[in-house]
Design brief:
Length: 223
């Protein structure tokens, strides 16, 4: 192979990888944007009346789950790895690129998101550490790095009555990525977002910024 041919092949491979990553990111981003657009719709199921015994964080969670139902598979009171979560959602996207006919396929990629929802009265640093550890281990176990796997997001959304500054500082500093087969089978990122109802503010880690739009839209909806 000549130097010119090698350079061309390398450039084509880089462009293809960039297209795959772009498709992966766009799929999850579009899903979150659509969820944000539908905040406030059908927060309660048909025939269901709001319960005065349930506080604000339960109503906020209902709105968030309702907003995700068009694009995610949503479950309530979800039991997993010895814990019960008031909400859980999954998103799966399949993408491919081919030339002229589908038999001449250039590449195909799968992207996924696994969203765990938690309610807290007063969120502190100890709780954040425990939940992050859970996500990095049991949450990560949700990811199946098959040959077409491009990326997965393991996401944690906490709705709290109030939060300590230490807890929010830890959330902002949280960073976790797992590469599978040295990246050949994609990767998984941890996204964390906390809604502090006492301040009506949403705090995320760097990878969790895509979650912020949906949650902020939820907090702006009047009860």
């Amino acid at each position: 192979m000549s130097d010119q041919t090698a350079i061309q092949a390398s450039a084509e491979g880089t462009a293809q990888a960039a297209q795959q990553a772009d498709a992966s990111g766009k799929a999850k981003c579009e899903a979150e944007e659509q969820a944000a657009a539908h905040v406030g719709e059908q927060a309660l199921r048909p025939g269901e009346q709001p319960s005065p015994a349930k506080d604000e964080k339960h109503l906020v969670l209902k709105r968030i789950l309702a907003a995700h139902e068009r694009w995610f598979d949503v479950q309530r009171e979800y039991e997993y790895a010895g814990r019960t979560f008031p909400g859980y959602a999954e998103f799966h996207s399949y993408g491919e690129k081919y030339v002229l006919v589908k038999r001449a396929k250039l590449w195909e990629v799968d992207t996924h998101e696994y969203l765990f929802f938690v309610l807290a009265n007063r969120l502190d640093e100890t709780q954040v550490r425990d939940l992050v550890s859970f996500m990095e281990n049991d949450g990560l176990a949700k990811v199946v790095p098959e040959p077409n796997h491009m990326s997965s997001a393991i996401s944690l959304v906490i709705v709290a009555d109030s939060c300590t500054e230490e807890a929010l500082r830890l959330v902002r500093k949280t960073k976790f990525r797992k590469n599978f087969a040295f990246g050949i089978r994609g990767w998984a990122d941890l996204r964390v977002a906390v809604a502090d109802l006492s301040t009506k503010r949403v705090t995320t880690n760097a990878m969790g910024k895509q979650l912020k739009q949906t949650i902020e839209a939820t907090l702006s909806v009047q009860a």
